[in-house]
Amino acid sequence: MPAISIRNVTQRYGEPGSPQSVLAIDNLSLDIARGEFLCLLGPSGCGKSTLLNIIGGLMAPSEGEVRVQDVLVRGPLPDRIAFVFQESTLFPWYTVAENFGIGFKYSGIAKSEWGDRTAKALSSVGMAEFTNHYPSQLSVGMRQRVNLARGIAAGTDILLMDEPFAALDEQTRMVLGEDLSVLLAETNKTIVFVTHSLAEAVYLSDRIVVMTARPAHIKKIINVSEPHPRLPAFMLQPRFSEWRNECYAALRDEIRQAMAAAESNGDPP
Amino acid sequence: MRGGSALPARLIQLGFVAAFLALWFVIGRTGAISPLFLPPVEAVWSALTALVQTPQFWAAVQVTLTTIVEAYLIALALGITAGYAITRSRFATKVLEPIVSSIFAIPITLFLPLFILLFGIGTASKVAYGAAYGFFPIALNTIAGLAGVENHYLNAAKSMGFSHFGTFRHVLFQAAFPVILTGLRIGFFVCFASVLGGETISSVSGVGRNIALSAELMEPARMFAWIAVVIVAAILLNGIVSLFENRMRKGPA
Amino acid sequence: MTLSDANIRRPAPTPCPWLRLSGTAKVAWTQRFIVTAFLVIWEIWARVGGDAELIAPPSAIVRALFANILSDPDIRAAIALTLFEIVVAYVLAVLGGLALGIAIGSSTISRRALYPIVLLLYAIPQVVLLPLFTLGFGIGPAAKIAFGFSHGIFPVLVNVVAGMQNINPLYLKAARAMGAGRADILRDVVFRHMVGSFFTGLRLAMTMTLLGVILAELYVSTAGVGYFTKLFAETFDPAPLFALIGTLAAMAIVLNVIVRTAERRLTRWKG
Predict the structure, then answer these.
(1) Closest-CA distance of chain A to residue C170, Å
(2) Across the interface, do C176 and A76 touch by the CB < 8 Å criterion?
(3) B241 close to B191: Cβ distance less than 8 angstroms
(4) What is the ipTM score, two decimals?
């Protein structure tokens, strides 16, 4: 049984038939296996984040359904699905530890476990000394590390990550990407990861789903059959470049199409 | 906030004013509040209509307006000059900006008796007081605006070979303009309020003086008439300034 | 001096002490220098050139401070009463602003309906209502407290309403994703965010309350601080007037510092 089963999901904004109606996602179906690291790769505004929100129950699809571990998704499932967003969503008015606590409280985890889970999660990302700091006292990279740890500490089987490294500079991204790969090799979580970065997609995923420009559907699925855990040396291998070139070939036209569409709408690029 | 919500807000404000006047009317009829404190709205209305026909009214308005304008022009000239001069050097900015904002932290109102001591009880003291008060937001915002122009803009201008004046005109001034404009707006309303305050507390002429005088002479209807004049003027001014500011902002966008 | 002497290495001459200071120290010393220079010039000018009936030198002001102001029980009482009025007005303004702000900000309907009225009132220069306040409340402390309250309540109100509104939607999204219910979001996200905004408003509230109380005090020239400012302004010795105003200014500064320190302590998370 797949961990996540997406069936004929269509997402439409605005009244159907009206001129403002926008078809964001067009009849998309996909199965994601347990323990798989799947990447959604596509041009800006193509609907990857929308799809992620639909999978996680933050948004209901116009048509179709999503099943998680054979349970129909009708709203957030905090005990099965955890989110990691692009910007740090650590609440600024709570310390790091309190931020973890809030998440545990909402998913009904017993208070006695909070301390241990928090400590373990923070040491796994190297942020154990910052347990009682406020987010404003941490750099952007550190905040996103903690954000990541919070997502993992939720202890869910499924982790949905929406461009978690987008706000970071290239070098921090690389380092965090390596750390993430090592971290996740130890667990058996199912990950759905949205990104713009081709290198990131190839480095981290088992499968890459290349999506088209709006309306989104699956253009190509690329299998990255490199064993886990992935090591930095992987990036130097010729096969890394081949996979990345495959992504680019599939993606290039979609990017241009998306930019042209944005310009004609008067959107800023 | 969507732009469409401006109209309902205006309607609510109008509705509030209408309700306020209606309540006032009812209170006047029932006599629930002493007419020595709150005269009936009709009495205030007739006092107002009588008032605006007297030459004394227009003389007082002229005095106050002149005072405000003079105070503002001085504050403007001094504030922008000071702000510009201070930001010519990074060191000067670091030294002087805290001094200026510390002085502003003291309620300048406290110095009103000093202004009256130095300049007498006539309009000169109110001009000085208003100018002193309005100087600060203008100077501080000019400093903030000019000092806050990001280095990469200045570097770009330098690399393109801009002259000193060219850099000021095309980069510094443009980038700093919104912040300075806000300072000018705040400065104006500060001058407006402080001149009125100075006139109310200690003066021989002007709108503020008339409000205080009407209170002293136990002529509540007249006092409310004067207050109404100020309130209407303030609301109109606010509206005009907002319109002007929006027009200015849409320009360089 | 022989050639060989010239080859002897001498220790480098110590740079002038000024250059050895760090940047911040230089700024601080320059500021102290400016303030001192200002006082010195004031002192000299007041003694030599200024009109003795209009400007008092700092030394005379300090003398008057002890001889006329602090030693006079009536003046001390007036200053203490002013302080009392400020504190009471401030506490009332803060509590009132908080209560009213929560009431207005807690539902979109009430905010849309009532906030425009708040903005309308904010645009009126309250000082023209001062004679009205004294007519209604008399010339005692009540009028001054009321006037200070009506000034100070606005910044608190505005900040509380804003704090309940301008929340980054990503926080709401994250809370929902973590499984928070409506009540949870109100308590852990909205309320907390509002409190941060509220504390920022406390500083401006003190500034406005000070303004209101002082305006009222100066207006009433028959009692309190206003009586003494009028009294001193009409003598030929300006030093006591300067001293009295200086004392009040010092009081205002101290109050501002207290509020600002409290704000910084309480919003440490804002960074």
Answers:
(1) 7
(2) yes
(3) no
(4) 0.87
